Amino acid sequence: MPQHSPHELPEGDPFGADALPYGVFTTPGAPDHPRIGVRYGAYVLDAATATAERGSAYADLLDQPVLNPLMAAGRPVWQAVRAEIRGMLDDGTLPGGHAHPLDEVTLHLPFEVADYVDFYASEHHATNAGRIFRPNGQALPPNWKHLPIGYHGRAGTVVVSGTDVVRPQGQRKAPDEELPSFGPSRRLDIEAEVGFVVGTPAPARTPVPLDAFRDHVFGVCLVNDWSARDIQSWEYVPLGPFLGKSFATSVSAWITPLEAFDAARVAPPARDFPLLPYLDDSSAPEPGGIDIRLEVRINGEVVSRPPFSAMYWTAAQQLAHMTVNGASLRTGDFYASGTVSGPESDQLGCLLEITAGKGPFLADGDEVVITAWAPGRGGARIGLGEVAGRVLPAGGR
Amino acid sequence: MPQHSPHELPEGDPFGADALPYGVFTTPGAPDHPRIGVRYGAYVLDAATATAERGSAYADLLDQPVLNPLMAAGRPVWQAVRAEIRGMLDDGTLPGGHAHPLDEVTLHLPFEVADYVDFYASEHHATNAGRIFRPNGQALPPNWKHLPIGYHGRAGTVVVSGTDVVRPQGQRKAPDEELPSFGPSRRLDIEAEVGFVVGTPAPARTPVPLDAFRDHVFGVCLVNDWSARDIQSWEYVPLGPFLGKSFATSVSAWITPLEAFDAARVAPPARDFPLLPYLDDSSAPEPGGIDIRLEVRINGEVVSRPPFSAMYWTAAQQLAHMTVNGASLRTGDFYASGTVSGPESDQLGCLLEITAGKGPFLADGDEVVITAWAPGRGGARIGLGEVAGRVLPAGGR
User: Quick one: B100 and B214 in the same domain?
Assistant: First the structure.
């Protein structure tokens, strides 16, 4: 238990009144009543009961087992609910009777995932991975700087932070082996990513332009896109990753409203090619990058500090690309940035890159924790919820 | 209107008592009450009211706007419901008061799609497509005969037969062009496929062995996996198809129970490599192939008759592969076979193959209809519902 009372936010805590991420929690006393909470410091504000007590029009939207109804309500409602929650914290304290210490609640997968798409937006990662996967080919494929490459992942195996991840089994073939063999992955890896959750849907045939990004994206989370490199490298030509990824994708329990990152907007890297109009953000009114600073720890040791600001493709560009062919968006659609890697050797977002393809990769029992923060107003930090997971041996249930 | 009464099934009609596919329909008189129907000849039996009248224990499962609750109920229930429906038809007639002529109802997407996976299981298609997409490489990748290659598609854009398909726009780059351009696809294609719908879920870390296929797969449908070849060929390296496919995937309105194909089981082609145990069906008690005979018509003209019996990988192998890494299955998971192509020039399942990559591809206004049947008991035919769609010009809403 923290030493301070719910009525004080510790100095420098990144979960202050400018962060206020949403999650879904239960208490030991009501394990069958999942509902929406808002993180404040080391506490969870029960948003359902706190708003109901005040007779808020949004109390029903918050007394829900997933964020989807709130996300579907649209940006004006998101803004109104956030203002109402902030109003409760005006004196810097949590409203009495509605706060639970974080370590006394259970956090659940905060939204029902519709479609899950994973991008590949870091030039550093794509170049490094390309060299390792295709040593005799071009590291960066010719399309890479013209469009944000992405693919659909498995929505049904997205799990919340804290869920153990069992080492997957499957077909593996090392380059020097003649035939594939079956067994536990020998090259289990992480991918530190940032995820974006769609709230407002878009019907078919209505591409989402760059400047409508804020109307559709509800919030931001952290992602660990677990990857079995040996399964992936054997299976992925020509239709892309499948079983090397589909066993589990972990997301943080907290979804931080997009608005919380207003002070962290930064220009993306200079573009090497002029972009087609639907992707051209060179004259956008606000910069498309976000200065989110990730930290990856394995068994408590920091192995990397990947900078999200270095991503070549922005989340707005990814959304515009994903819908430009007329594909609809649903509430709960979820897309991840791809591995976040920066230019420096201590900024790489996966072990494939960190170890130059040689390993070691994850061992059974390893615990991976990814955390992040972004600059807020007046020197404050905006925290993102961590995404954590432990590797269990293959074959276990 | 058909000339015969609901009390007679025309001679040779493939939708007799051994087919009985399920769908979801509304009538003009009750457009807000979608419910489950069973096709019999040119009629829809209102399964909800017909079972309710008899006091069936399953009436509630059938008075639903999607098949998912019935699919989730498991194989013993599927068998019991089918037996009950067949019992109503014992004298070869439909129960009075519960039959609607097919052309007087509206058919809806029959199930809520969880995850959608598309495979690549025809050796003929994979070889032909490989030659066209990778003229300087190996046509069939080295992994192809060791595992059923597949990838996740977009579940949110699966549409029911009859839905118009708007020509997608996107980035296209012909091999002789230096830079990509933006515009409507110039190479819009079809892919004639057979789809399998999962009923009984499987928790994470419980791979579905070959012999549990029947316990999990509820039924079979036809699929048109619309494909924009120019968008696809520019985007698909290295992470697979994305926008070239994600604008629309059409499925038939009717899901035929797996059991209806018992008389159509055939051995798959001889395998060129021994398969790893989880895929080895050489000593399976029942053959894994299904003799479904497809027919593809464009604007009324037959362009191909692809044989599903020629598929190298079976649906049971695909399910075993999809779950061998520990990925869970959900009710509504849906997987398609990949383009069905046979060895002959009149058995190719897409225009890419039919025209050897040269086109012509689909023109605006073209109507594509895929139908199929399989051998049933005593020389009868088991019909599958058609999957039809018309191409609308790009940019329309």
Answer: no
